[in-house]
């Protein structure tokens, strides 16, 4: 594990693998290096890229600040890109895709963007407020479940995960659900006309229509964006399927 220091002094933990052009992977909600799709994807991409995976603030081995603003997450990504030598490509998964888009708009030195199923822009503002209330009240388990239901997990699946081995880890990072929903809730499609870097939008053929539609909306909003749909599951495509598509676009 390595760390970089973000602009506000927060230490951000990361790992580096492979050799080649720099590529930073940005996790979505409830994910970090120890739990989520990016570590397996990094292993697939390491033959072509120097791949950076990191724990977003408040997760895993990264630190956090006493107060949150969306700009802090842009600064965290900027610190990783600068450490990688500047001009890195960035892959963002789900809300991490929105974070990558917004970071590019805020001047982070990103060369290319590859984005997997960004959620609908601007629709999470009320959810962010509700999750914040639950977290402040110490009801982290309820916050986790409210988020899971909001993103389309069936109620029976949500209740069935209450006793899972990873439930404690999800509750530990429940405050970061507020971060993700604040970022996506403040996003606006009309701003993406200012994205000036080559951009690829990817979705799974078996994801909910809401996510496939939002992927298409972003693809239309970003000038010159490319669009791919791949065989996959619910909000997921196997790394072995996704990695060659990303490499074909980013190299």
UniProtKB/TrEMBL annotation:
Q: Where is the AB hydrolase-1 domain?
A: 39-232
User: Which Pfam families does its entry note?
Assistant: Abhydrolase_6
What keywords appear on the UniProt entry? Hydrolase
Does the entry feature the keyword Metal-binding, yes or no? no
Superkingdom of this protein's organism: Bacteria
A GO molecular-function annotation: hydrolase activity
- Name of this protein: Alpha/beta fold hydrolase
The organism named in the record is Nonomuraea phyllanthi
Q: Write the lineage as a comma-separated list.
A: Bacteria, Bacillati, Actinomycetota, Actinomycetes, Streptosporangiales
């Amino acid at each position: 594990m390595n760390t970089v220091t973000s602009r506000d002094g927060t230490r951000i933990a990361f790992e580096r693998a492979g050799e080649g052009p720099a590529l930073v992977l940005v996790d979505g909600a409830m994910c970090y290096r120890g739990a989520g799709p990016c570590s397996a994807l990094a292993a697939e991409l390491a033959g072509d890229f120097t791949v950076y995976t990191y724990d977003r603030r408040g997760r895993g081995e990264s630190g956090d600040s006493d107060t949150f603003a969306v700009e802090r997450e842009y600064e965290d990504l900027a610190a990783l890109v600068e450490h990688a030598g500047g001009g890195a490509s960035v892959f963002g998964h789900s809300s991490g895709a929105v974070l990558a888009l917004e970071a590019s708009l805020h001047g982070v030195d990103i060369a290319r963007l590859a984005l997997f199923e960004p959620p609908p822009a601007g629709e999470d503002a009320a959810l962010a407020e509700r999750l914040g209330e639950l977290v402040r009240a110490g009801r982290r388990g309820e916050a986790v479940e409210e988020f899971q239901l909001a993103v389309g997990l069936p109620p029976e699946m949500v209740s069935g995960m209450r006793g899972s081995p990873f439930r404690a880890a999800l509750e530990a990072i429940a405050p970061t659900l507020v971060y993700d929903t604040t970022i996506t809730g403040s996003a606006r499609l009309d701003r993406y006309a200012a994205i000036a870097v080559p951009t690829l939008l990817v979705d799974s053929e078996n994801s909910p229509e809401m996510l496939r539609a939002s992927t298409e909306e972003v693809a239309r909003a970003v000038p010159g964006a490319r669009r791919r749909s791949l065989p996959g599951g619910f909000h997921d495509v196997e790394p072995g399927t996704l990695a060659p598509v990303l490499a074909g676009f980013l190299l």
